Amino acid sequence: MAEPDRDTTPAVSFYGWEHEKEHREEWLRCLVDVLDSEQWLSHGNPQVSTFEREFADWLGRDHAVAVSSGSEALALTFEALALPPGGEVITPALTFQATAAAVIRAGLTPRFVDVRPADLQLDPAAVTDAITPRTVAILPVHLYGLPAPVDELARLAEEFHIVMVEDCAQAVGARTRSGPVGTRGVAACFSCGPTKQLSGPAEGGVIALDDAALADTLRALRHNGAAASFRHEHLGRNAMMGALDAAFLRHRLGRLDRENTARRRIAERYAAVFADDPLISPVVPDQWAHASPSKATIRLPHTARDTVRTALEHAGIPTAVHYAVPLHRQPCFADLPPVSLPVTDEAARTVLSLPLHAGLGPSDVGRIGEEVKRAVKEAA
Ligand SMILES: *Cc1c(COP(=O)(O)O)cnc(C)c1O
């Protein structure tokens, strides 16, 4: 294969952090605000409580509890729910490790269920089959910024008197037909890590919910279990969001809707470029208008994926695989009973994520798309 001409082919980045330099003044303003406030304590910090209020209002829920990561958001939620120990939580295996680790950390058992072939989201039919008297919760993941079928799953949860918690880590701003992602579950957990849409040079997570008592428990748990000053009702842990992280996230929240619209347009452009290629299938929701894509995930013939990745790397196009090793095959979950998840296994062999961020212009998307098509043709 010919070497790319680095002078005429600028490399693109996967996450687009270099474009954040355009907002340098705003990021620095956040730092100055926190410095000048002279309030560095995370507990009771006005930046944190204001971010919580702004996030809850933006989403349309009564409460938001800011924590140190999306992983902690999930783990603290299951701890606060205090579901019967050993109960099963139905969740997909095509997700990040934190989804199921949170379940185990709360003394519960993940029950991995397959995704549906059309959009790789948790399959309500497979969930129905997996519900037993031991099932205590359903934990759908809105994968790749596409909405999981939470309306159907919420109906199942209601019918079987179990709770639904949403893992919204990848999908802040996505919508189902009935409303924003994160408004159907008893609690919805978001990540504000650097790879996610609502992020900054920071780590963080948010739990959105309507139950005031559960919100109080979560606020105590993130603060070493203290419900009042130095009165520790629970063991808890230190999972506070810091003042600077909150200031950064307040700034980013102010332009999130605009950026999500731009991302949606880029996803549509990718889909248009790939429309005439029978070997490439973008993973798309029922209607694009409802997604909040965080990467452009496509499916390839499974013999081609790794060759295509290498060819794209040579062309200066970074890619990622979400996820090559699904959770039912991860060493840390090896003690769980074996399950058969054919759609998940097939996806693990065939998915490829392409860069998708607001810094990509139409010509970047066109160039990446054409390189992908060429690499797939050569590899097939
Ligand atoms: C990123 C992510 C998490 C964890 O969030 P962190 O902020 O990285 O701890 C959980 N679930 C999913 C699906 C994720 O993508």
Automatic annotation (TrEMBL):
Family: Belongs to the DegT/DnrJ/EryC1 family.
Keyword terms, alphabetized: Aminotransferase, Pyridoxal phosphate, Transferase
Gene3D superfamilies: Aspartate Aminotransferase, domain 1 (3.90.1150.10), Type I PLP-dependent aspartate aminotransferase-like (Major domain) (3.40.640.10)
PANTHER family: 3-OXO-GLUCOSE-6-PHOSPHATE:GLUTAMATE AMINOTRANSFERASE, TRANSAMINASE
Organism for this UniProt entry: Streptomyces lunalinharesii
Top-level taxon of the source organism: Bacteria
Pfam family membership, one: DegT_DnrJ_EryC1
GO molecular function, one term: transaminase activity
Protein name per the record: DegT/DnrJ/EryC1/StrS family aminotransferase
InterPro entries: DegT/StrS_aminotransferase, PyrdxlP-dep_Trfase, PyrdxlP-dep_Trfase_major, PyrdxlP-dep_Trfase_small
Transferase recorded as keyword: yes
